[in-house]
Design brief:
The structure holds two protein chains of two kinds. By secondary structure, chain A is an alpha+beta fold. Chain A is built from eight helices and twelve strands. Chain A is globular and about 95 Å long. Chain B has one domain: Up-down Bundle (Formate dehydrogenase/DMSO reductase fold), CATH 1.20.1630. Chain B starts with 31 loop residues before the first helix and ends in a 6-residue tail after the last helix. Classes of the chains: A alpha+beta, B mainly alpha. Bound molecules: iron/sulfur cluster (SF4). Iron/sulfur cluster binds next to helix 3 of chain A.
């Protein structure tokens, strides 16, 4: 990656203030309202350093979680929660007989690592479920919970097809990744993407990210990683069942379930119509039957 | 574009991969309060429907059923709203529910349904009360009541069934796999519970035998539809591979014996016998009405907690969100 010429304007170690449009220097993108932004997380580049988890907690002032050992893999975070908005999965490839794998596939050895995050779905099931309008779509095409409006009804929690958003029992509000809404407003790249040392997490405008991602898949296929595929880009697994695309999408090399992702997630809002219609039809039928029975009583 | 063929083959049902067995979606935070609300909303909504149907039959002997139905509906609306507010995690902000109206969210739809049901039920019940105290109720009062009971009954239909959509418009496998069955079942069960509540009210506060006979028939029909829907829901959940949570920790037994048999099957037979032999059967059994009400609550509570349980099972979710079977 070449260095942006504007970098030379800021040689000092301690900057006097925020660099205007800093994202241009760190992610090669200016951030502007009215355009769609997202993350492309390329799992073949992830080394499991968890810098993203730490950067996210630092920037968003999120408290530490339970510091226990899970004993399943090197992932002791477990899942995304109200206080964890980036989470690195560690999946160890075990050989067929249950022992140590002796062959090593290219990229990621026998460990798969993937930094998971809110997908900023389009359309977003959490937003469509929110009865207060606390969850909204920002001018950057991302999905954010407004803390001053949320009343903690918790309906977004089961609505999310990826188990991302959660209600904190500490403050009674729903919380999730904001795609660093505040940083975007200030022209900065989101904290996790900026801190990622291998560029496994790439921030940018969606169209450009899609191009980059498709090229990367082709490069990987050419190098012999035949099972590389995109998850969440338009027309790929993850963008199914009424979900047009996930603004945070992934490059994966194993079945989605391996990374705790559903193969064909669906948009819950599409079940509202059929469900209401079936319910109302049933009860309307019974209501008319009751009327007939009361009326029959009058006849005799 | 990467061809879908590159997506690794879907594992067979038995060997679906999971991430160390950790849940892939989060369960709802709902518990008994919400099952209680779903139940009460059904009883009140259906009591209003039955009262309106009875009023439309223009039979003066039905007056007690109409009156009791209207009061039960108001009681349910008065009880239901606080249950929902207490269940919020920031209850002092409950009024934010009134900021928007959203078609994609059954929670928002339900907010407005409950509001309009509550207001119209209040108006109808208030007119009912006042006209009961007057020696000669005015004609305008009667007409207003007739005009208001229609929206009250229509929103009563929504009250009895929208809760099915509330559960199904989520990513919880056990609820999302059967959107039509759950809503239809809630509707039938609500009618059965509403009828049982009216039968009980009739026993305590007096009712005519004409009303009793009609209520027997409605109860029989509603319970019969309920039994069929309960069995078809169970089948559907098995077909979709998301029924495991219903077989666990006794919830399967509670469903089959508590909800299906005691709550609907036995009452159906009881009312059927009363319809066939009107002379032999004397008073309707209070026990049966109580069993219907208990079964109605149980049904909702089992479905709610089994749903939460299914969300914690990655295999269930991956079967539900597994795409077309290969
Ligand atoms: S991943 Fe979940 S929390 Fe994030 S936008 Fe989609 S539905 Fe909302």
């Amino acid at each position: 990656m070449t260095v942006h010429p504007r970098v030379l304007d800021y040689p000092q170690s301690f900057l006097p203030g925020v660099i205007p449009d800093e994202a241009e220097l760190t992610a090669g993108q200016r951030v502007g309202a009215g355009r769609s932004y997202g993350f492309f997380t390329d799992t073949t580049l992830c080394i499991g350093c968890k810098a993203c988890e730490v950067a996210c907690k630092e920037w968003n002032a999120l408290p530490a979680d339970d510091l226990g050992l899970r004993g399943t893999s090197y992932d002791n975070t477990g899942d995304l929660s109200a206080t964890t908005w980036r989470h690195v999965h560690f999946i160890e490839h075990i050989a067929e007989n249950g022992g140590r794998a002796t062959t090593m596939p290219p990229f990621q050895s026998n460990w798969l690592m993937m930094s998971d995050v809110c997908k900023h779905c389009s359309p977003a099931p959490c937003l469509e479920a929110c009865p207060t309008g606390a969850i909204f779509r920002t001018e950057f095409d991302t999905v954010v919970v407004q803390q001053d409006i949320c009343n903690g009804c918790g309906y977004c929690v089961p609505a999310c097809p990826f188990g991302v958003v959660d209600v904190s029992l500490e403050d009674g509000k729903a919380h999730k990744c904001t795609l660093c809404y505040d940083r975007l407003k200030g022209g900065l790249e989101p904290a996790c993407a900026k801190s990622c040392p291998t560029d496994s997490i790439q921030f940018g405008e969606l169209g450009e990210l899609h191009d980059r991602a498709h090229q990367r898949v082709e490069v990987l296929h050419a190098k012999g990683v035949e099972n590389a595929y995109l998850y969440g880009a338009p027309g790929t697994p993850g963008a199914t069942g009424g979900l047009q695309q996930l603004n945070a999408f992934f490059l994966l090399t194993a079945p989605p379930e391996t990374y705790n992702l559903p193969r064909a997630p669906s948009r819950p809002a599409e079940r509202v119509g059929p469900s209401l219609a079936a319910g109302l039809a049933t009860i309307a039928g019974l209501a008319f039957a009751s009327l007939a029975m009361f009326a029959a009583g009058r006849a005799d | 574009m990467n061809a879908p063929a590159l997506l690794p083959e879907r594992a067979t049902d038995r060997q679906i991969l999971t991430y160390y067995g950790l849940p892939a979606v989060k369960p709802s935070l709902w518990g008994g309060l919400v099952s209680g609300y779903i139940f009460i909303a059904g009883v009140g909504g259906s009591a209003q429907i039955i009262a309106t149907a009875a009023d439309f039959a223009r039979d003066p002997r039905l007056a007690p059923v109409i009156r009791q139905g209207r009061y039960i509906a108001l009681g349910a609306a008065i009880l239901g709203a606080p249950l929902l507010i207490i269940d919020l995690h920031t209850p002092q902000r409950w009024y934010n529910m009134l900021r928007i109206c959203r078609r994609t969210s059954p929670m928002s739809i339900g907010t407005w349904v409950l509001m309009s049901f509550g207001l119209s039920s209040f108006a109808v019940a208030a007119l009912q009360y006042v006209s009961g105290r007057l020696r000669r109720p005015s004609r305008t009062m009667q007409t207003t009541m007739k005009l208001l009971e229609v929206p009250a009954a229509l929103t009563g239909m929504a009250m009895s069934t929208y809760t099915g959509a509330l559960l199904s418009a989520t990513s919880t496998p056990l609820w999302a796999a059967a959107p039509c069955q759950i809503a239809a079942l809630f509707g039938a069960s609500a009618m059965a519970s509403g009828t049982a509540a009216l039968a009980l009210a009739g026993q305590c506060r007096g009712a005519s035998s004409e009303a009793g006979r009609a209520l027997d028939r409605i109860a029989f029909l509603a319970s019969a539809v309920e039994v069929v829907l309960m069995l078809s829901l169970r089948r559907r959940l098995y077909e979709k591979g998301v029924a495991e949570a219903l077989g666990d920790r006794g919830s399967g037994l509670a469903y089959d014996f508590g909800a299906v048999m005691l709550g609907a099957g036995v009452p159906m037979l009881h009312h059927g016998r009363r319809i066939l032999r009107p002379n032999r059967a004397r008073r309707p059994s209070m026990m049966v009405s109580l069993a219907v009400l208990a079964g109605g609550f149980l049904l909702r509570h089992i479905l709610l907690s089994a749903g939460n349980d299914s969300a914690r099972r990655p295999n269930d979710y991956f079967r539900f969100a597994g795409g077309p079977r290969q």
